[in-house]
Write a sequence for this structure.
C-alpha cells in the first residue's frame, strides 16, 4: 500500500519532469532548426536589397522590402494603438474605479476581444476597404493591426495601472488636481516602465501577424513610400517564398524567418528586462 | 483655471470616445460580416451551407462541412496532444521543481508565446511534415505526403503549449498554500495532495484554460495552413489532408472577386469562425470570472 503510493508519486514526478524537459527541447529545436536551415542563405544582399526580376524563381535580390514594410507597419500600428489604448486604460482606472461592476464588464469584454482571431480582423479590414473603395495599402494594414493589438495593449497597461495605490489618486485630488491631471501627471508617470513593456508586447504581436495583413496591406516588391502604397511584410514574405518549389527561394524564406524571430526575440527580451527593473 | 477645466473636459471626452470605438468594434465586425455574407445566406439555406459537402464555387455550391470538420479535427487532435503535456508541465513547475526553475521558465514561456505563427509554420514544414510522412504514417501502415491533419495538429499543439501552460500556472498559483499544507500534514504524499487538492480546486480554471486554448487554436491561420495540405474533402483519418476554415479564407481572397458570391462565402466562413470563437470565449471567460469572484 505504502509502496504503491510512493511508486505513484515518483512515477508522476518523473513523468512531469520529462514532459517539462520535452517542452523545452521542442522549443529549442524550433529555433535551432530554423537557424540551421536559414543561416547559409542569410547575407548582406538578402537583408539590404529589394527583390529583383524573377526573385520568386530564384533570381537575385533580398527581402529589404519586407523588413522595412513590417517595421513601418508595426511601428505605425503600435503608435495608433497607443493613441487609443492609453486613454482607455486611464479611463477605466480613474473614472470607472467607482463602478466595479462596469469595470469588470469592460475587462471581460477586452479579454473576449483579445480572443478574436487575426484572420477575422483581416476579413473585417477588407470589408471596410471595399466599402470605402480603397486598395490594399500600408495605411489599411496599420489600422487593422492597430485594432488587433489594442486589446492586448490596454489589458497590459491596465495590469500596471491596477497596482497603483488608491491613496496616490486621492492625494492628487485633495491637492486640487483635475482627473485629467491625475491621469497624465500621476498615473502615467508612475506606470511608465510598465507601459513600455505593454507597448513592446503589442509591437511584437503586430510584427509577427500574417493573417490580418494578408487582406489589408497587400504585397509588393518595393519599399512603401506613402500610406496609400501597398506594403510587404516579413511573415507574408516568408510564406510566399516557402510556397515556391525552388530550393534557393525556400532557403531565403528560412533566412527571413531568422530575421523575424530575431526581431521578436529582441523585443520580448527587452520587454522582460524593463519589467524586471520595475 | 477655466483652461484646466476645459482640458479636463476635452480629455475625458476623448477617453470616452476611444472606449466607445473599442466597445463597438466587435459589433461592427459581426455586423460587417453578416451584411457582406448576406448574398450567400439569402440565396442558400443555412442548413445546407453548414452541413453540405459539395464545394464548387463556380457552380454556386457552397457546403462548409469539409472545412468545419477539418477545423474541428485539427483543433481537437492538437488539444488532445497538448492538454496532458501542459498539465504535467504545470504540475512539475509549481510542485516538484525548485522555485528558481519556475522563475526561469516564466519569461521563457512568455517569449515562446510571442514567436510569430509563421515561424511555427516554417518549423512545421521543415520538421513535422517529413516526420509524419517518413516515420509516423509508416508506423501505422499508412501512406501520407506529410501535409496532413496530424501535421497541422502537431504544429498547433506546440503553438498552444505556451498559451495554455501560462494559464494553468496561474490557476495553480491561486490555490491557497494552506490547503496543500493541510493535506500534507494529514499524511498525504505530495502527489496525493496534487491529485486531491490542487487538481480538484483548480478544475474549473484548468478546464477554462483548455477551452480558451481551443478557441485560440481554432482561429490559428497561417501555421496550420502551411502544413495541412489544403484539400477540400471530409478527412477520413488524421493522415489525410484537410482544409480548415481560416485557411479557406486566407487562401482564396485573391480570386474571390472573380466568381459571383464567392466573396460572400469567404465572409460567411469568417463569420462562422467569429461566432464560434466569441461564444467559446464568452463561456469560459465567464466561468473564470465566476470562479475568481468566489
Amino acid at each position: 500500500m505504502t509502496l504503491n503510493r510512493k511508486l505513484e508519486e515518483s512515477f508522476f514526478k518523473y513523468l512531469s519532469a520529462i514532459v517539462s524537459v520535452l517542452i523545452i527541447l521542442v522549443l529549442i529545436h524550433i529555433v535551432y532548426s530554423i537557424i540551421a536551415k536559414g543561416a547559409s542563405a542569410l547575407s548582406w544582399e538578402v537583408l539590404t536589397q529589394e527583390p529583383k526580376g524573377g526573385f520568386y524563381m530564384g533570381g537575385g535580390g533580398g527581402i529589404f522590402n519586407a523588413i522595412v514594410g513590417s517595421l513601418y507597419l508595426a511601428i505605425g500600428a503600435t503608435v495608433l494603438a497607443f493613441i487609443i489604448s492609453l486613454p482607455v486604460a486611464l479611463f477605466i482606472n480613474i473614472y470607472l474605479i467607482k463602478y466595479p461592476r462596469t469595470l469588470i464588464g469592460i475587462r471581460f469584454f477586452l479579454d473576449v476581444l483579445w480572443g478574436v482571431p487575426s484572420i477575422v480582423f483581416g476579413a473585417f479590414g477588407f470589408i471596410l476597404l471595399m466599402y470605402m473603395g480603397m486598395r490594399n495599402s500600408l495605411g489599411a494594414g496599420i489600422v487593422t493591426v492597430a485594432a488587433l493589438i489594442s486589446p492586448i495593449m490596454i489589458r497590459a497597461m491596465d495590469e500596471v495601472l491596477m497596482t497603483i495605490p488608491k491613496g496616490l489618486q486621492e492625494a492628487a485630488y485633495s491637492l486640487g488636481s483635475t482627473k485629467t491631471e491625475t491621469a497624465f501627471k500621476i498615473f502615467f508617470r508612475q506606470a511608465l516602465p510598465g507601459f513600455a513593456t505593454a507597448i513592446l508586447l503589442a509591437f511584437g504581436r503586430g510584427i509577427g501577424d500574417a493573417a490580418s495583413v494578408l487582406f489589408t496591406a497587400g504585397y509588393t516588391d518595393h519599399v512603401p513610400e506613402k500610406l496609400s502604397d501597398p506594403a510587404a511584410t516579413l511573415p507574408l514574405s516568408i510564406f510566399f517564398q516557402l510556397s515556391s518549389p525552388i530550393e534557393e527561394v525556400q532557403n531565403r524564406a528560412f533566412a527571413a524567418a531568422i530575421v523575424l524571430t530575431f526581431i521578436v526575440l529582441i523585443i520580448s527580451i527587452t520587454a522582460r528586462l524593463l519589467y524586471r527593473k520595475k | 483655471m477655466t483652461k484646466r477645466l476645459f482640458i479636463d473636459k476635452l480629455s475625458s471626452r476623448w477617453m470616452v470616445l476611444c472606449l466607445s470605438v473599442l466597445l463597438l468594434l466587435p459589433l461592427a465586425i459581426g455586423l460587417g460580416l453578416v451584411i457582406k455574407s448576406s448574398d450567400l445566406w439569402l440565396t442558400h439555406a443555412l442548413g445546407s451551407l453548414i452541413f453540405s459537402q459539395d464545394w464548387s464555387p463556380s457552380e454556386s455550391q457552397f457546403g462548409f462541412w469539409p472545412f468545419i470538420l477539418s477545423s474541428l479535427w485539427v483543433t481537437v487532435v492538437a488539444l488532445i496532444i497538448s492538454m496532458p503535456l501542459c498539465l504535467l508541465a504545470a504540475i512539475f513547475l509549481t510542485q516538484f521543481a525548485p522555485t528558481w526553475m519556475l522563475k526561469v521558465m516564466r519569461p521563457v514561456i512568455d517569449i515562446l508565446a510571442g514567436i510569430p505563427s509563421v515561424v511555427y509554420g516554417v518549423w512545421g514544414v521543415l520538421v513535422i511534415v517529413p516526420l509524419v510522412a517518413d516515420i509516423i504514417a509508416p508506423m501505422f501502415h499508412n501512406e501520407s505526403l506529410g501535409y496532413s491533419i496530424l501535421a497541422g495538429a502537431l504544429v498547433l499543439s506546440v503553438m498552444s503549449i505556451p498559451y495554455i501552460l501560462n494559464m494553468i500556472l496561474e490557476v495553480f498559483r491561486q490555490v491557497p498554500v494552506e490547503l496543500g499544507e493541510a493535506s500534507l500534514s494529514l499524511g498525504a504524499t505530495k502527489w496525493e495532495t496534487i491529485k486531491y487538492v490542487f487538481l480538484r480546486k483548480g478544475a474549473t480554471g484548468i478546464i477554462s484554460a483548455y477551452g480558451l486554448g481551443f478557441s485560440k487554436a481554432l482561429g490559428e491561420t497561417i501555421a496550420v495552413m502551411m502544413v495541412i495540405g489544403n484539400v477540400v474533402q471530409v478527412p477520413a483519418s488524421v493522415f489525410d489532408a484537410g482544409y480548415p476554415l481560416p485557411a479557406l479564407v486566407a487562401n482564396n481572397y485573391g480570386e474571390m472577386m472573380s466568381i459571383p458570391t464567392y466573396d460572400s462565402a469567404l465572409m460567411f466562413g469568417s463569420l462562422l469562425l467569429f461566432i464560434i470563437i466569441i461564444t467559446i470565449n464568452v463561456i469560459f471567460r465567464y466561468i473564470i470570472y465566476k470562479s475568481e469572484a468566489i
User: Anything to note?
Assistant: The mean pLDDT of chain A is 86. The domain at 48-277 of chain A is CATH 1.10.3720.10 (MetI-like fold). Chain A has two domains: 9-41, 48-277. The longest helix of chain A spans residues 2-38.
